[in-house]
Structures are given as structure tokens and as C-alpha cells.
Design brief:
globular, Rossmann fold, 6 helices, seven-stranded mixed sheet, alpha/beta, 7 strands, single chain
Length: 199
């Protein structure tokens, strides 16, 4: 059994990726938050166990003991899992980083923010509602706007075309580096570095 199930005060940072559970959603644009968490888990050797309506993995990133979280409640109810995890570990929103997809950023870019509204993203809206605050770090992964005539819902629930996969790997790597930079340097310095590349 993992240490985070025994020592609830040993975690100092919660890193949440947003997505929908289930094989049918695994490779969709809306699940890049899950993909980023999986990238971090692979890089830092974390395994996952189920608890708090989420998949949880433990990793040391930038010297901090982190909990990697993939809520399994479906996107619209993501905040329930985030609230329960923070409460169990007696942490506040200042210890939270949320990674999710953003259509307002071109594919291949990321943007970091320390606070703000949901901009219509249902997963983020759920977290803001459950925590009753907009003040937490977020890393937004650009997926770009749908082509003309596409329904946005169909677009975000669609998969990445094969030719985009190398670029996807790069942006997931960038998001992972941004997590480490946010933990070690703070959100302001990390944002100054990574936001330059987003359009």
C-alpha cells in the first residue's frame, strides 16, 4: 500500500489533471489533463491506486512530495474529488495545480495562471464551486479551436490526428516541466517562461 494512504500529512502539493474516465475518452482532446498526469507518472515512477473518486499516484517533483490526481467522476464533477483529496491531506488551494485543455490557446502552447474564472470549462467550474475560490494555479494546454462548422463538443471529444501526436508529446513534456518550475520557482517565474510560447 502506498505511503499517501497511511501518512496523510506527508504530501505538500496536489497536481490534478482533468479528463473523463473510460477507454472511449482516453485519447481525446478533452483528456490532455489526464495525459499530462500520465506523463508525470511515467517520468517520476508513480503508480496509481483508487481513492476519493480518483486515481492517485505519489511522486517527488522539484523536491516536493506530490500527489498526482485523475478524478474519476467525469469532467463536470471533478471538484468533488479535488475537494476530498485536499481535505484529507489538510491542504488548501495554494497547494493545488490543475492541468486542463483550453480551446483559446493554439495547439502546442501552454499558459500558466495563478487564478481566474472557468472560461466555460466545466471541470474547472466544478473545482471553483467545490473549493469556493478561484485562487489556485492552473496549467492550460492548448488544443486550438475547432474547424469552421464543427460542434465544439464534438471537437473536444475527438481524438488527435496522427500527424499531431509528435507535437502532443512535446506539449505534454512542456506541461510537466511547467509543473516542476511552478513548484520550485513559483507561478510568476514559471508563467513568465512558459507563457511566451502560447498564442
Amino acid at each position: 500500500m502506498f505511503g499517501f494512504l497511511r501518512q496523510k500529512n506527508s504530501i505538500s502539493q496536489i497536481v490534478v489533471g482533468l479528463g473523463n474516465p473510460g477507454r472511449q475518452y482516453a485519447k481525446t482532446r478533452h483528456n490532455v489533463g489526464f495525459m499530462a498526469i500520465d506523463f508525470l507518472a511515467a517520468k517520476y515512477g508513480a503508480g496509481f491506486r483508487g481513492k476519493f473518486q480518483a486515481e492517485l499516484g505519489e511522486a517527488v517533483i522539484g523536491g516536493a512530495k506530490c500527489l498526482l490526481v485523475k478524478p474519476q467522476t467525469y469532467m463536470n464533477l471533478s471538484g468533488r474529488a479535488v475537494r476530498d483529496v485536499l481535505s484529507w491531506h489538510k491542504l488548501g488551494s495554494e497547494n493545488l495545480i490543475v492541468i486542463y485543455d483550453d480551446m483559446d490557446i493554439s495547439f502546442g502552447g501552454i499558459r500558466l495562471r495563478s487564478q481566474g474564472g472557468s472560461a466555460g470549462h466545466n471541470g474547472l467550474k466544478s473545482i471553483i464551486g467545490e473549493l469556493d475560490t478561484q485562487e489556485f494555479c492552473r496549467i492550460r494546454i492548448g488544443i486550438g479551436r475547432p474547424p469552421q462548422g464543427w460542434d465544439p463538443a464534438d471537437y473536444v471529444l475527438g481524438t488527435f490526428p496522427k500527424e499531431d501526436l509528435p507535437k502532443l508529446e512535446n506539449v505534454l513534456s512542456d506541461a510537466g516541466e511547467a509543473v516542476a518550475a511552478t513548484i520550485t520557482e513559483g507561478i510568476t517565474k514559471a508563467a513568465n517562461r512558459y507563457n511566451r510560447n502560447a498564442k
